[in-house]
Amino acid sequence: MLSSLRGKADSPLRSERSCVLARHGMVCASVPEAAGAGAAILSRGGNAVDAALAAAAMLAVVEPMQNGIGGDTFALLWSEPEQKLVGLNGSGRSPAHASADELRRRGHEAVPSHGILSVTVPGAVHSWETLSKRHGRLPLAECIEPAIRAARDGFFVTELVSHYWDLLVRAGALRNEAARATFAPRGRAPAAGERFRNPLLASTLEAIARSGARAFYEGPVADAIIATSRAERGWLAAEDLATHASTFVEPIEGSYRGTTVAELPPNGQGLTALLALEILACLDPAPAGSALEWHRRIEATKLAFAERDAFIADPEHSRVPVAELLDPAFAEARARRIGERALESVTSGLSGGDTTYLCTADAEGNLVSFIQSLFGPFGSGIGCGETGVILQNRGSGFRLDVSHPNAIAPRKRPLHTIIPAMLLRDGRPWMAFGIMGGDSQPQSHLAFVSNLVDHGLNPQEALDRARFRWHGGLRVSVETPQAPVVEGGTLADALRARGHEVEGPPAVFVDLFGGGQAIAREADGLLVGASDRRKDGCAMGVWK
Q1: Is 35 domain-assigned?
Q2: Set 120, 272, 355, 417: catalytic member
Q3: Average pLDDT, the chain
């Protein structure tokens, strides 16, 4: 039976949205047009992978400041025919000429956060084709046709997309003329409800539909990307694009009070979420709505991030001690550091952004957790000629310290923030979920899973409940600083009494606390969809 607090108006855990229920398929995305594209593909006989690709392609059109074909993807899926979890790392690598010494020579003390020197090879298009060929049912061209139509004929810009788009254009996130001509052709962002067309992107997507991923990594589109890099004094070369490949990887797993949590391995930061959950699981559940609950979640986050920042890097270049970090004894030792007061600083205990998320399910039992990103707002801010493509800034995830595992080097993947996730019970998939938002993602995974397991919330309630974002040191932002806590007084005052430096949400609505989607498959086959109140999106079921 589906748990629900909708009928309890006085419950602080109640959501203002109900879960969406269906049996023959479900798509959850941050913009309704993307959910609709995926649901339409399911209705035409596609499976959950096809639906995910349709929704992802649509999001690349209708939510362009968050994601696009100039960015990366990660996917975690339950393959019902194979009866196993499958992971795909669709992140790109640094150019062959990337160099810490050259960055220093140009006067940089860190990898730039934007501009051409922050660019890595875009992995999204290759990952679409890779997933389609191995796990899809319909041709990729059919899956991305709705996105092509939306780009060519136009789409109506949703409220929060328009809000963020406007903030970013006015802040100067579009950093060259090609980017401004494509995404602010009238010198401004489109207003909510305004029709926006991107014919250049439509042409590029049409080329991909005709010729596959090769049309992006070779030929006119690749030529435009390389020409842009040269004009901006970047490092990308034709060989960097032509040799790119996605990688199938083995998911990693942790446990939270008997529920299995699956994430992708490094170079993603899913390990951070697993470690935070295993640390929190060493402590008894705190009462819902207590300052103690918030305090422990924040402290578990701090401890996990210390290990992330010390070790997570490209495993093809550096050894990442995954097994040691997920050893229960290590989690227990770290949990003993959590006391009544906030830790001012945390170092490793082991010796030695802007994104969009979607999930899909089909009637056959396949379940897909999929995340796609440009990283920063409009990525690098660099558009590429007449392609409609804007390049990501994932290279800013590298470090300049050549002794660090995550130091910038040729053809290397940086630490990546995007992390699709899945929950399993007794070896069977229970729920696909993800919550975008750069460094907030492991923190939000921690809160979401704890809300489900410790308090029995349904997916919508678990997503909508107020969240925190730890910034480093003692600084933490909370969505509801004035909310009452069971100990008495307000949340902000109670956390400050424990030593936290508490900030409220920003005055202008920004993506500080991210936004998520989730689909649960119950034992009787019922699909339960949830879409975060912090986004424009929805859960869309398929009923035959």
Answers
A1: yes
A2: 355
A3: 95
